[in-house]
Recover the amino acids of this structure.
């Protein structure tokens, strides 16, 4: 549903994408919808207040985030019957590694108008920077923090014939790149950082070379990791496998460590156990 920018908004839900760094990336339509919304559901009112200040408006805001969403959603759905409710996240496109999908689902179920105002999304922006195939891509958001769950999540996508997109934080970046090299093979990859901000950077290389670079100097700022599809990817290097076994044995007995690395790499568990025992003896 497209409405003229100066008319009152039809009641319903408006999903509004906001900048991921450079405030000039807010589209005129997004600004107009925010300025006319009866209420804006926000992750953090301080962040959205700055954006509203930039467009010279003040609107009522209500928090909508992972900790209160279930409680406040029914009230928002009810209000959509008579009011225009906008949903924003702190940065980028709502619902993409951010809250909102249940709000859209319930708004649809209640028969309300649901409109999206498309705009910045870090995953797509990074994909355009990486110089890796864009014909098929698979977005995974943030990998789990726990080692086992992370290795499982990587193993699950090892055979996917697509470019992979992950969100990641600076302190975890080097370890994640090393785990990706082990689980996926040493593929071509890119680390896109601080997109649309002053220090925007996109560094390309193999997963292992990027892991080495960021191990020495953990980066600051917001990060997207892009990994090329399998195909020309080299099998995991012996050194990467050793590193994975050594790391796993800091948490697990050798047999379990071998099992975890076998799952991540597809290599035979028995061979990995033998290697784990050798590494243990050498330690
Ligand atoms: N909904 C947002 C979107 O559309 O991109 C993503 C929200 S998610 C909670 C935040 C993550 O997105 C950050 O931790 C980072 O991985 C990535 N991100 C956000 N802004 C970024 C930027 N300017 N440069 C690189 N990555 C960014």
């Amino acid at each position: 549903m497209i409405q003229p920018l100066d008319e009152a908004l039809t009641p319903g839900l408006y999903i509004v994408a906001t900048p991921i760094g450079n405030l000039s990336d807010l589209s005129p339509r997004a600004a107009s919808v925010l300025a006319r919304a009866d209420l804006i559901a926000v992750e953090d009112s301080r962040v959205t207040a700055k954006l509203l200040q930039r467009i010279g408006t003040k609107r009522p805001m209500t928090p909508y985030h992972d900790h209160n969403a279930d409680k406040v959603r029914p009230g928002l759905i009810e209000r959509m019957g008579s009011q225009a409710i906008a949903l924003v996240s702190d940065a980028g496109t709502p619902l993409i590694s951010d809250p909102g999908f249940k709000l859209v689902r319930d708004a649809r179920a209640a028969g309300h108008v649901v409109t999206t105002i498309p705009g910045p999304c870090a995953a797509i922006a990074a994909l355009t920077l990486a110089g890796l195939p864009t014909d098929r891509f698979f977005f995974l958001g943030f990998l789990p923090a726990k080692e086992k769950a992370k290795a499982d999540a990587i193993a699950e996508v090892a055979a996917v014939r697509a470019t992979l997109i992950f969100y990641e934080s600076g302190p975890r970046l080097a370890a994640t790149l090393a785990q990706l090299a082990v689980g996926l093979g040493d593929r071509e990859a890119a680390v896109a950082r601080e997109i649309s901000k002053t220090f925007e950077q996109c560094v390309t290389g193999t997963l292992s070379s990027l892991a080495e670079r960021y191990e020495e100097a953990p980066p600051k700022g917001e990060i997207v990791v892009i990994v090329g599809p399998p195909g020309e990817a080299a099998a995991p290097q012996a050194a990467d496998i050793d590193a994975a076994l050594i790391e796993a044995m800091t948490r697990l007995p050798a047999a379990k460590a071998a099992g975890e690395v076998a799952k991540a790499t597809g290599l035979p568990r028995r061979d990995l156990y033998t290697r784990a025992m050798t590494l243990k003896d050498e330690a």
Q: What stands out?
A: The pocket of S-adenosylmethionine is lined by residues 20-21, 89, 91-93, 96-98, 121-123, 167-168, 192-197, 222-224 (CB under 6 Å). Residues 12-120 form a domain with the Cobalt-precorrin-4 Transmethylase; domain 1 fold (CATH 3.40.1010.10). DSSP finds eleven helices and ten strands in the chain.
